[in-house]
Amino acid sequence: MHRFTDIESTSKRLPPVYGYLADQLLPLKEAIKPILSQIDQLEDFSTLARNKCHFPSEHGLTRDESAAIYLYTMEWGGNSFYQVINRALRAEDRSSLEPWFAYLKLFDSAVQKLPTLRKNLWRGVPEDITRLFKKGDEFIWWTISSCSTSLSTIQHFLGSN
């Protein structure tokens, strides 16, 4: 599984996630403290994210905001950050997301500073999900979804199948 193709192909109805926007904006090291036990070596990977992230940012992101996005994009095996947070975001028990609130606040703060673009985006889905969509329907993916403006990038992750 890769973050470009991590999708749950059901149209599960879940309640929205409330509460994280009211949390205080914290540095990444503080924001991940409540979830350290869920992901091996998370402190090490968060340090790496702070060192490798795009900073300074032409969009005004702080180093911690940029690192929060970078941390989500990192791959380190079967328990990568994006896999664990997306499992939590898909959970029917919305209270299980509370340990993630500080990180979600930081991630949301970062994304809100990025420019809005009107472009086609591609998302890799390793199966035919057209049966889920009807013209005019609204569909909500309950996860953070990686997309690309490049179809060839997505095709690379999907492979020849």
Present the secondary structure layout:
Elements: H1 28-31, H2 42-52, H3 63-73, H4 81-90, H5 101-113, H6 151-158
Protein name: NAD(+)--protein-arginine ADP-ribosyltransferase
Organism: Adineta steineri
Q: Please outline the major beta sheet.
A: none
What is the CA-based Rg, rounded?
16 Å
Alpha-carbon distance between the two ends: 14 Å
Low-confidence stretches: none
Mean pLDDT: 87
Coarse shape:
globular
Strand content: under 5%
Briefly note the structural class of the backbone: mainly alpha
Written as H for each helix and E for each strand, in order along the chain, the element string is HHHHHH
Please characterize this protein's 3D structure:
- This is NAD(+)--protein-arginine ADP-ribosyltransferase.
- The structure is a single chain.
- The protein is mostly helical.
- It has a domain at 20-117.
- Helices cover 35% and strands 0% of the residues.
- It has 6 helices and no strands.
- Helix 2 (42-52) crosses helix 3 and helix 3 (63-73) crosses helix 5 (101-113).
- The protein is globular, with a radius of gyration of 16 Å.
- 21% of the residues are buried.
- The mean pLDDT is 87.
